[in-house]
Amino acid sequence: MNKITLSVMFIIIFALGIICGMYACTYPFKTVKEPMVWTKENRIKEKEYVKAYCKGQIEYRLPDKTRVDCLTDEYAIEFDFGNKWAESVGQSLYYSKMTGKKPAIALILTSLADYRYLKRIERVDNNIKVFLIKAY
What we know:
This protein has 136 residues and is α/β, with parallel strands linked by helices. It has helices at residues 3-23, 46-53, 85-99, 115-124; strands spanning 57-61, 67-71, 75-81, 102-109, 129-134.
């Protein structure tokens, strides 16, 4: 690789580190000793991330029988993989209305390419708090 390519890669990785620092707040999450890495061989399910990271009530049931993945004192959090970003936006907003908590999404990123979904969420609604779970 030439120097320009290496410089560009360094800048991208540095920028992603800053983005993670801004969004990957651990407030509503448990401290996880070892990161849960998702691979094609080790396909960890969404509910396992909820169990590992939720620091509130898991699967809080609403009167209409829908369930909030994680309900904390401050947030109604929907956990989802990056490619399900659109569903998570709708669910987090709905759960927020139903519980009176702030809307939040725990976006599970299984690759660097998944950061594009974060930008899509931001374009839809900046009032949704996004917590990133790096699973790669």
